[in-house]
Task: structure prediction
Amino acid sequence: MKRESLMLFFLFLPAAGCVSGGLPSRTASITAETAAPTAPDSRISATEIPALDFARDFTPDPIPGSYQFTEGPAADSSGNVYFSDIDAGIIYRWSPDGAMSIFRDGLSGPNGLAFDRNGNLIACEGGKGRLIAIDPNGGITVLADRYGGIRFNEPNDLWIDPQGGIYFTDPAYRSSAVQDGEDVYYLSPDRSRVERVVRDMVKPNGLVGTPDGEKLYIADWAAGRTYAYAINADGSLSGKRLFVSSGSDGMTMDESGNIYLTVRNRVDIYHPDGMRVAAIPIPNTPTNVEFTGPDDRTLFVTAQTAAYTIKMIS
Result:
């Protein structure tokens, strides 16, 4: 997921109610508790960018098309958004002018996506239990497909750190676990080693890191919790702490460090200190989010059988 997102100043309304966690699989049904509504944080100050006013209605604008289960939006340097249709085995490319095309088909359960510094699209191909790189022409290179000599479960979502290392979650939703756990892994920047960096979650899913590469947020969807970790120089993680009592499917971060979690029928926005400050209703349960547009002020939302764009300023 692209991390170069807009600087936001929020005019907040309290978020209401508790909701269940995002649904990575249409057959899953696990209730996740969310944090209680809290007041705005007085430390957030105005910037030169127009303020977001959550008193107004945010109207998701549907992306035309018929989809089976959308996921993993990733924006390239031109503002095009690539997103997966897991069940169809397709990665689509959407451009800001509304044009839609198929970037790559014939995949097995493509899910989370992100662009590396060389313009390759890194993808979690859950159906084959592997992490792959897709070049601009659609050619595939397998980056990692096993740990300890055993294939991964179903790589789900990923985040690329500033050095080019890749963190990815490996739950099991559509089949039984192959590994001895549903864990989080790190692929080194030189692609020479895969390390298991988290092994105490029930079912890890979305994750996102800070642009400075110092902190990583990981959602344990089945446990209904999202945690924050310190990233060490060797890629390992330490200092686990509870960020919020809410799981999430996919997530993103804006330039102010606010975290966007996808839960049932809405996107919840949390200040870095863990206070929930806003919620955006979505007609379908959202699966993932990404900022795009020429000024990174458009939120692209994948939501199972649909996808939407939302203008984040009035």
